[in-house]
Design brief:
- The protein has 519 residues and is of the alpha/beta class.
- The chain folds into 4 domains: 144 residues, Beta-Lactamase (2-Layer Sandwich); 157 residues, P-loop containing nucleotide triphosphate hydrolases (Rossmann fold), CATH 3.40.50.300; 70 residues, Helicase, Ruva Protein, domain 3, CATH 1.10.8; 44 residues.
- The protein is built from 17 helices and 17 strands.
- The strands form 5 sheets. A 6-stranded antiparallel sheet has the order 3-2-1-6-5-4, sandwiched between helices.
- Helix 1 runs antiparallel to helix 3, helix 3 packs antiparallel against helix 5 and helix 11 crosses helix 13.
- It is elongated and about 120 Å long.
- The protein starts with 8 loop residues before the first helix and ends in a 7-residue tail after the last helix.
Length: 519
C-alpha cells in the first residue's frame, strides 16, 4: 500500500482503514482519493492498491483541462464507464492501463460541498457491477465526511499555529518594548500603565516631562504596543523646523511648488501613514502651520505645498513637550483648539529624582548594552558607585544618567566602575573672558579646570565663592556629622541624614580625610 497525505496521522489511518475494508468487498487494483481545492485542482490525497506507486504522490489535474471530470463532479453521483464508452483515462500520464479496463468514479460530496473524487480501476474488464456502483455511492459519502473533517482539523491546526506564533511575536515585541522602559517605582509603574492603556486606541497623546525623562521612548512604547506596531514610526523635532520649511517638511510639496522643488516630495505625515507620528517639542510648532495641523488631526486631510488635491492619511499623533503649553496658549503663541486636540490623553513623566531605585535599574540596563561592546564584557559597579548614583538628583534625568554611565565605563576601561569614575560626571564648567586673556563666552573648559581669577560665573557670582566638588562634599559630610553629634549609624546618624549606607559614608570620609573626632 502507498499512502500520500498532508493531514494528521489519525486521519491518514482512518482513510487507509476505509480503503482496505473496501478492498475486501470490491476487487480493485487501484483506489485513489483526490482532494478538491475548491477552485480548479484535484490532487492525490491517498492512493492504494497494486497499481499505486511514487508517481501518484505529486499527481494533480486541472478541471479546466478536463471538463469531462468537472461534469462528473457536477452530476454528484457515481459513474461506471461502460466497455464501449469513450473517455480519457484519468491517470494516462503516469499509468499504462489497457484501452479496455474497468473504471469507476464517484464524487465525494459532504453538506452540499464537493470535497473530492474517488476513482477505482482494474486492468480486467467487467469487474465492477451496478450493485457495486450503488455501494460505492454510499461509501463515498463516508469518505467525503472523513475528508471534510480532516480538512477542518488541518485548518484549525493552521490557525492555532498562526495564533501561537503571533502571540509569541507580540509577547516578544512587548517584552522588548518594556525592557527599554525599565522602572519599578510606583510613579513609573503608573506611567507605564497609562501608556499601555492608551496604546490600544488611536487617540492623540501629549507626553509631558522635563528634558531627558524619556519622552521619545514613551512615544515608541505606545507605538510598539499599538495595533499600528507594524507601521512606520516617524519622529519630528519641531524646535528644529524653520518656519519657512516647516510646512513642506510636515506636509510635503508638489513638483515646482517653489524654487528648488524639482520633484514631488512626501512630508512626514505621508511617511507615517498607517503608523505613528511623534512631534517632539510640539510647543515650538510655528504658528503658521498650526491650523493645518489641526485639520489633519480632525479630518486626516491636508494639501501638499503647491498642491490642490487633498491627501488623506491615517496617522496616530503623539506629541511631547517640556514647556507649559497652557501658558503658551494664554500668551497667544499656541492655538487653544490645537492644544485641546493634542492633549486628549496627557501623560506626565516623573523626573529621575522622584523614581527612587529606578536609577539602579536604568544603570544596569545601560551597562548591559555596553557589555555587548568588545572588551567590555566584565563591566560592573562597585557598591560606593551605586550609592553615589542613588544620591544624585540628576537634573538631566535619564539622558544624563546614560551619559554618566558611558563616561564611567570608559574611565574604568571596561572593568569595575567606582564612585571616583562618577565623581566629575556632573561638572559643568564654563570659561568666561578674563583681563588680558579673552576667551569665547560659553566655551566649556576641561572638567575640574579652575575659572580665571577675578572672573564671574554665568550667574554673576564671583569665582571666589565657588569651591571644588570634593571640598563641597567634604563640608556637606562634616555638617551632617555635626548635626548627628558625630554618629554615623542609626536613625539619627549622619548616613541616614545624607541618604547613604553607613559603609558608603565611611568610605567617602576616608577618601576625603574626615574623621568624626575632627568635625
Amino acid at each position: 500500500m502507498s499512502l500520500y497525505t498532508e493531514y494528521s496521522l489519525s486521519q491518514s489511518a482512518t482513510m487507509s482503514i476505509v480503503l482496505e475494508a473496501l478492498h475486501e468487498l470490491v476487487d480493485y487494483e487501484l483506489a485513489v482519493v483526490l482532494d478538491f481545492d475548491g477552485e480548479d485542482t484535484l490532487s492525490v490525497h491517498t492512493a492504494t492498491g497494486p497499481l499505486s506507486g511514487p508517481a501518484f504522490k505529486e499527481f494533480s489535474l486541472s478541471l479546466t483541462k478536463r471538463p469531462d471530470i468537472r461534469r462528473l463532479l457536477e452530476a454528484e453521483k457515481p459513474h461506471l464507464f461502460a466497455e464501449d464508452e469513450s473517455h480519457v483515462d484519468t491517470y494516462d500520464k503516469i499509468l499504462d492501463l489497457p484501452d479496455a479496463h474497468s473504471c469507476m468514479v464517484s464524487p465525494l460530496i459532504a453538506g452540499g460541498e464537493v470535497i473530492g473524487l474517488l476513482t477505482l480501476d482494474h486492468r480486467s474488464c467487467g469487474i465492477f457491477s451496478r450493485e457495486i456502483l450503488n455501494f460505492i455511492g454510499v461509501i463515498s459519502r463516508l469518505i467525503a465526511i472523513a475528508l471534510q473533517q480532516a480538512r477542518r482539523e488541518a485548518d484549525l491546526q493552521d490557525v492555532t499555529v498562526r495564533l501561537a506564533g503571533e502571540r509569541n511575536r507580540l509577547l516578544s515585541s512587548k517584552a522588548d518594548a518594556y525592557r527599554s522602559f525599565a522602572g519599578e517605582s510606583p510613579a513609573w509603574k503608573a506611567v507605564v500603565d497609562m501608556l499601555t492603556l492608551v496604546s490600544a486606541t488611536s487617540s492623540p497623546v501629549l507626553i509631558l516631562g522635563e528634558t531627558g525623562t524619556g519622552k521619545e521612548e514613551a512615544a515608541r512604547l505606545i507605538h510598539r504596543l499599538s495595533p499600528r506596531s507594524d507601521g512606520p514610526f516617524v519622529a519630528v523635532n519641531c524646535s528644529a523646523l524653520p518656519a519657512t520649511l516647516a510646512e513642506s517638511e510636515l506636509f510635503g510639496h508638489e513638483k515646482g511648488a517653489f524654487t528648488g522643488a524639482q520633484a514631488l516630495r512626501k512630508g512626514r505625515f505621508e511617511l507615517a501613514n498607517g503608523g505613528t507620528l511623534f512631534l517632539d517639542e510640539a510647543g515650538d510648532l510655528p504658528q503658521e502651520i498650526q491650523p493645518k495641523l489641526l485639520r489633519v488631526l480632525q479630518e486626516g486631510l491636508f494639501e501638499r505645498v503647491g498642491g490642490e488635491r487633498s491627501v488623506h492619511v491615517d496617522v496616530r499623533i503623539v506629541a511631547a513637550t517640556n514647556a507649559d503649553l497652557s501658558k503658551a496658549v494664554a500668551d497667544g503663541r499656541f492655538r487653544e483648539d490645537l492644544f485641546y486636540r493634542l492633549s486628549v490623553f496627557p501623560v506626565s513623566l516623573p523626573p529621575l529624582r522622584e523614581r527612587g531605585n529606578d536609577v539602579l535599574l536604568l544603570t544596569e540596563f545601560f551597562a548591559r548594552r555596553l557589555r555587548e561592546e568588545p572588551g567590555w564584557e566584565n563591566l560592573s559597579f562597585s557598591a560606593d558607585a551605586l550609592d553615589m548614583l542613588l544620591c544624585r538628583e540628576w537634573p538631566g534625568n535619564v539622558r544624563e544618567l546614560k551619559n554618566a554611565v558611558e563616561r564611567a565605563a570608559i574611565l574604568a576601561r571596561g572593568g569595575e566602575m567606582t564612585a571616583d569614575h562618577f565623581a566629575d560626571s556632573a561638572m559643568r564648567c564654563v570659561c568666561v573672558p578674563a583681563a588680558g586673556n579673552p576667551t569665547p563666552t560659553g566655551q566649556p573648559t576641561a572638567a575640574g579646570s579652575p575659572l580665571p581669577a577675578g572672573s564671574t560665573t554665568p550667574a554673576g557670582l564671583p569665582t571666589s565663592t565657588i569651591v571644588s566638588l570634593a571640598e563641597a562634599e567634604r563640608e556637606h559630610i562634616r555638617a551632617a556629622l555635626a548635626a548627628s553629634g558625630g554618629k554615623i549609624y542609626g536613625e539619627d546618624g549622619a548616613a541616614r541624614l545624607l541618604g547613604l549606607k553607613p559603609t558608603t559614608l565611611q568610605s567617602r570620609m576616608k577618601k576625603l580625610g574626615i574623621t568624626p573626632e575632627r568635625v
